[in-house]
């Protein structure tokens, strides 16, 4: 075929585009399907946005989001702002990591079931991916930290969502460090949900130059609409990643908003407290209804019913304007991933599930 | 070297990162170096941002920026919204185009001197690039539309900034169509500055499925701080590009702001009128001072002095808190690219230049 009749790279024809959860733009859905925070963002965020908008947007933004990086380094207790690269959502951060380290014909590794987007990012690069299946208790087999079984040097990057989705389970920092040390390549620890967990791996980046930790403001800071994420790693690694990003990848409004958000530590503590309390209630009630519930350290709960159809429950809930995530992992199984909403939202969902 | 001692793709070590114009975050600089609009964005933009911020940002934004695409299609007279893909600045759009069409070891083409970023995007992909030099009157030799001289099929994409930077010159739509028809690959017409020009190539996308037109709100809509750009092409091409973008690449605030901006047609006409009037004054006065001035159809003016040092003039202006862009194109020459500011800003710059 000529370049002009199909100008796209062969990898695009083969790939399966990532399909995010439904985002109805109208209607009155109770949205418990994409792990958004049900509460509004810290009040300082709105004020920062209005102030930035009124100051005018005719100039290019700060290319490296310095104000955000300074505040985040302070909030998280990092050695300095140069341990952070900010991006247009952690999606962009994950994209930058793959583009920086995984070339055509090379390979990335991920656990399964986990975040399918990593596979899509490999597909776009024309790279391969391989999966290590969690065991039935969501422990990760030792194979995840080993060289590829075919002995080739193609493995370039491993992704570990921690807490994982859909399970909400975590590996301890000790377990993560042990994996990073054994792996023949760098490890990205995707901590999108870490603010809802009992532990995180922030301290590991100081011990290991091949650990990259990604964070997002979408979940714990209630800013999914803002698109702001970042990666934490040693400064020489951050500098190299900076070559890949667009010059002005974060806009002036989101930099101002993100800076205000990460400065709102009290708000965060309160919000996480509320989410955790509701999560406990969800776990109890789902168990009472008859679900097998995986104890969660994230802002969602993964549950499977021993004999009812997950797909049908999802569809019945949708008819009642309640969206949860039906997830089917081929050769593994299916279930429902239900985001932690407000108490009222969660009660409405649980009441209907109890009647099914 | 082991993957762990240097985990980055070989192409990163070799590449020259793109260096954007200086963006001092403090101080009282008169900024005439990165072609920002000196006037604030349309008033409807601020109102739209405040309203979106107050509505809350806890939910994910519309993945395809539908409201923007509907309004832009109407404003630009396109057949429909599915002829548009929106992105986080036209930088992201250019990145998507390269990732979609140019693989490792393949090649893109650009004119010279023009926008150096295209080369960086090829470098990041591990791809090659080749340049066709403008002649001394900024006409583009026929070679730009021909197959590569080595006869290989590696050429996958050609970029044509129109108006060009640093020259501000344009090719007519007829000339562009003729190039697109001769080229063995698709043509991206980068129309970042087209609102300041007498012609544009919008109509060509309906005639040719291999023409992609990119636009930005950074220049004519005074929204460099917002990061919003888009590409216009036939719907089957747009659909394929959509596989590459991050799921939520535009945030809720920028979608609201961009929708309000492209609906502000009267504002745009007024703003462009002002810029053009100031541009005419700049061209006249720079000529009087002794510069050779290239007639511009953009919001900047390219000028070269027959015997004074451009670098020294740039440095002297900077000492007086006026930033212009000193550009040195190896094996071609150097000069000053001065953005069209307000009349007062431009007068301050011209006064100093006249004294040098």
TrEMBL record, chains A, B:
Signal peptide interval: none
Pathway(s) served: Amino-acid biosynthesis; L-histidine biosynthesis; L-histidine from 5-phospho-alpha-D-ribose 1-diphosphate: step 7/9
Protein name, UniProt field: Histidinol-phosphate aminotransferase
One Pfam family named in its UniProt record: Aminotran_1_2
GO molecular function terms listed in the Swiss-Prot or TrEMBL record: histidinol-phosphate transaminase activity; pyridoxal phosphate binding
Organism of this sequence: Roseimaritima multifibrata
Subunit annotation: Homodimer.
EC number: 2.6.1.9
UniProt keywords, alphabetically: Amino-acid biosynthesis, Aminotransferase, Histidine biosynthesis, Pyridoxal phosphate, Transferase
Domain Aminotransferase class I/classII large: 28-348
Reactions performed catalytically: L-histidinol phosphate + 2-oxoglutarate = 3-(imidazol-4-yl)-2-oxopropyl phosphate + L-glutamate
GO biological process entries: L-histidine biosynthetic process
Lineage: Bacteria, Pseudomonadati, Planctomycetota, Planctomycetia, Pirellulales
